Every structure is written in C-alpha cells, then in structure tokens.
Amino acid sequence: MTQSQLLLDGLVKGLKKLVVSIKVGSKLKIQNMDLQKRLDAFIADTFDKQIEFREEQLFTLLRESDTIEFKKSLLKTQDGISKDYLKTICGFANNNGGVIVFGIEPNTHQFVGIKPENKDLDNRFITTTVNNGFDGNVKAFLKTKNYSNIIIGFLLIERAKERPVILKHYIDNEAIEGDIIYRYPGQTKRIHSSDLRKIINEEIKAHSDRFFERINQIATIGVENTAILNTLNGVLSTEQSNVKLILSPELLNDLNLIPEANIVERDGAPAYVIRGTIHPENTTFIEKQIPTTITPQDLYKSFIQEDCIAPSEYLKNILYQQTHYYPVYFFIQGSGKSISDTILELESVTNQDIKKQTKKLLIERLTKNKIEPPIATRLKEIDYEEFDIKSIKIEIPKIKLSNHIKGKREKSIAREVIFRFISNLSQIPKSTIKQYVTETIEALSHLEEQFIKDNKTHVLKIVNNILQIIGVQESTTNGNAKTEFKKMICRIDFILHNT
Description:
It contains 18 helices and 15 strands. The longest helix is centred in the middle third of the chain and has 29 residues, at about 195-220. The protein is of the alpha+beta class. β9 and β10 (about 185-190) form a beta hairpin. The strands form six sheets. A four-stranded mixed β-sheet has the order 3-4-7-6.
C-alpha cells in the first residue's frame, strides 16, 4: 500500500470508532443560516403568537425580560447600526443571548415600526458595528417583517461562545471602554462581581471539559487510529508527519451531517456522523481560509502576499469601503474576468449598503484604465557620497549644504535618497520608514515600471513594512500618508496586474 492509502486506511478505521462533530466555523453563510433559523423560530413560535389588535392598533403581549428588549426605532450610521445598541448586544452575549425587537414602543408595547429604508438592511451593517464594538466574538443576525405595513426588526444575539465579551466603545455615560455588560431581567447594566466570577468559572470548566473529552476519545480509539480534522482548512493531522492529507473544499462542503440519534442513542446529546467518499489524489493542496469579514487591511494584505481565495468577493467588498483606491487589478486578474465584464458585475451590485460614490469612482477608474501618476517630484540633481541609510537624518543637512540647496527641502532630499536606495535593491529599515513614511511612499511611486516587474518581491516587502506602520483604518493618524499609500499601491497594482 502507498503512504496515502495507509493513511486513508487508518483514517477510516478511526472514523468507524469515533463520531465526529463537524463545525465549519470559517463560513459566515453557514453560521448565518443557523442564526436565521433560530430567529425565524422565535418570530413564528413566540412573537407572532403574542400579537393583540385593539383600537385599530397592533400591540405585543410580550414583555421585556433577560432575553427580550424593545426599541422604538432602528438607528444606523453610514457604516453600521448605532453604537447605542452595543450595550444591549453585549449584555445578551454575556448571558444567554436574546432578541432586540425594533419598532416596538417599550412602554405601551405598541407597534410603531422602523423606517421603510431599513426593511432589507444588509447584515453587513450589523457585522461592522459588532466586530468593531467588542473585544470578543459576538454573532448576531437581523431580519425584518411587515405587519400591516408596519415594519418590525428582529436582531438575534447569540450567547458568546467565549465569555466575557468586553466593550471597546464609550456609550453616552452609560458604559465605557473595558466595561463588561450583562443582561438582567428587563435591564442591561455593568455585571455584578458574582456573575462575573460565575462566567469565569464556567469558561474555565468548559475549556477543561472539552480538552479532557478529546484526550479520552483519543485514548479510547488509540493514537495510531486517530486523525485530527481542522475544519477551517480541511487538514487532517496524523502520526505520519511525512504525509499530509487535506480534504478538498468541495468535500468539506458536501459532507452529509446525519444526526446520530437516527442511528444510535448517546445520552440524548446531539452528535453527527460523517458520510462521504474520500478519494486519494496526487494533488498538492494549498491551505487557504476566507475571512468572515473582509477588512481594508485584508484587501491590501491579499495583494501584497499575492494570495486570494475569493477574488470576486474581495473586489465587490471594495464597494462597501470609503474609498476606491484599492488594488483592483490584482483581484480582476485572480477572478479570470476581463475589465469590461468586471465593470458589468460591479454595476449589477445595487445593495443599499454600498458606498455609491466609491462605486461610481471605481467604475470610472476601470473605464479610463490609466495608471496612477507618481506622487510629488524628484530632486534628481543632488549628489552625495554613499552612507548607511540608518544615518539619513544626520546626512540630509550635509547633502543640503554640499549641493547648495536653499529653503526647507529636507523632505525632498529624503525622498530622493530613499528612492536611490530602493533602486539599488537596498532594504529600507522599519525605523527609517517610520521616520520618513510619506517620503518612502512617494519614492516607491517614482520607480520605473520595468524595475517594479523585475523586482516585485523587493518592492512588495517595503510596501508591507509601510502597511504595518501606518495601517489603513480610517483615522486622523498618518492621514496624508495613508492617502498617498493607497494611490501608490494602486500604481503598483496597475503595473503588475493590468495584463
């Protein structure tokens, strides 16, 4: 038998003895499907059965509790739902989860509804606010329903798998960064010390129980018959370190999860068996993982690392950003589509949550299909003796003096010096980049097209160092440098990937 066949034989024996529970945590759609089903059940089985019609108005007979809260309206900002809701979301996540019902007057329990434009609000608005609002992983799903032309919103918040969840934002004197909020019957407030201690103890016990459960399973089955499946990337780890078996994404998607209760009882606990066919192939697999939320940092990192598993999704994600200055040609090339087909695809995206100006400018940019110009101007006429780039701050006054340069031209000199060091294939230390970040960006924008193509690794390494220093999130810090960085990276993207 070949090594692959031996590995498969051991794997099948292990699977016959062990019921494996599959959780594909990296796929947001699967998670959202589960949340949506639970929210649908709440609406149908709880909310809809507690509606009363009186005096030609609709009212709910439900009352606020440790799992239900009413909000009169649903407020949103340009990028997400209002941060005012973070306190309640945090409270539910730290207790047993819950539902925020939007469009219900909290005191009278009358249906007042939310604004019509929020009827089909994309869950990206929820994801953005939730991801930025907490130190911790919180899952939430929003759905709306029409009741006699009154739109009611339902936001299901799942109990956090790892608690406590901690606030990262200041909220109207009611909660501050670092607070742990907890849901009590009918109210949300800072957690009591006893409840915090309870959460900590539960988390310690849960982690300990899961760990020893896995150890006991391995001991029962035997290490030689055990393979550990990483459901995020499909990698099966075994004792045979020289053999790597990876389930393809197609097989991960097609695995049938059959409730074990249909086959054999196991103390009433939900369990699953794997049903599928595994075919050994002489194929080299590359481990990849799609992030559940694509951030500006992800868009740039994907380009710099030249690795993107879902280029079309990344490209569409640009429409939700504040600017169109992203490396679009890399994603177009990865998708295998033409520029004209890409423009048609972008034009077809009409979700109300996209940034209309970003979409307009991105399509205009692709239609013109022109390279970004260099930033600032070079000071080509200067002359100087070679020196260590780390000494640039000391050398600039000397260069200025020896070249009889007048006025405040230190930045121009720094830009030209850094340009020449890069052109000579010298790496620029992070300390120098940090000191002259704008000048380094401008220097990169002046590199010749053929030089960038011939020395791609060298150039992208410097670009990556800049990204690590300045970041790309919207803020006033390094604002000018970030703007120039985005234009510079678009220029390099055009040179490398506009084929």
